[in-house]
Design a protein that fits this description.
Its EC number is 1.6.5.2. The chain is of the alpha/beta class. It has six helices and seven strands; from the N terminus they run βαβαββααβαββα. Strands 1, 2, 3, 4, 5, 6 and 7 form a seven-stranded mixed sheet that branches.
Length: 207
């Protein structure tokens, strides 16, 4: 695809690998839709010291996001493990750096979704997804959850919510992302891609 092909930014933070796996499944869903691609990006851990110690390019996995990745995307999928019912600090730190995009309205009318992973079934999946939604609304984005037309929502016994894809990682983070959770990630990616293409046309017609 050319550099002009619209893309969905799949932006995530992952400690044990589950959120990264979900991000890859969402990206697969995006890229199953013709005419759009996925761009996987992560964020650096937050250091408690005053000086950053991580390399500019991660040793493995997706590269770190910058504001241009977000500015130029057609849609955003935002993923994080749960930390006390909210997104993890490294992802929040990145989101807090996006004030310039907010001031310029760069993300208005772009679709977005969220996904998360928790250690326990009632460990804050839904509250994390809902709190991740808040800054996206401040940016004027259009939130897209998972509709119940995805019948896997009625079958899953682990992760999966109408607010976004989720995963039950287990107390030791040793549960792999199961078939139902993967299916919901792919479905969410597909829906986000379709909305991105439709809303791109709407924004272009408004110019």
């Amino acid at each position: 695809m050319s550099d002009m092909t619209p893309y969905v930014l799949v932006l995530y933070y992952s400690r044990s690998g589950a959120t990264a796996t979900m991000a890859q499944q969402i990206a697969a869903g995006v890229e199953s839709v013709p005419g759009i691609q996925a761009r996987l990006r992560t964020v650096a851990p937050v250091s408690t010291t005053c000086e950053a110690v991580d390399p500019e390019i991660p040793v493995e996995g997706a590269i770190y996001a910058d504001l241009d990745d977000l500015r130029n995307c057609s849609a955003l999928a935002l993923g994080s493990p749960t930390r006390f019912g909210n997104m993890a600090a490294p992802l929040k730190y990145f989101i807090d750096s996006t004030s310039s995009l907010w001031m310029n309205g760069a993300l208005i009318d772009k679709p977005a979704c969220a996904f998360t992973s928790t250690s326990s079934l009632h460990g804050g999946q839904e509250s994390t997804l809902l709190t991740m939604l808040v800054p996206l609304l401040h940016h004027g984005m259009v939130y897209a959850g998972v509709p119940y037309s995805e019948t896997v929502l009625l079958e899953t016994r682990t992760g999966g919510t109408p607010y976004g894809a989720s995963h039950l990682a287990g107390a030791r983070s040793d549960h792999s992302v199961d078939a139902h959770e993967r299916a919901l990630c792919v479905a969410q990616g597909k829906r986000l891609a379709r909305l991105a293409l439709a809303l791109d046309v709407m924004r272009q017609n408004a110019l």
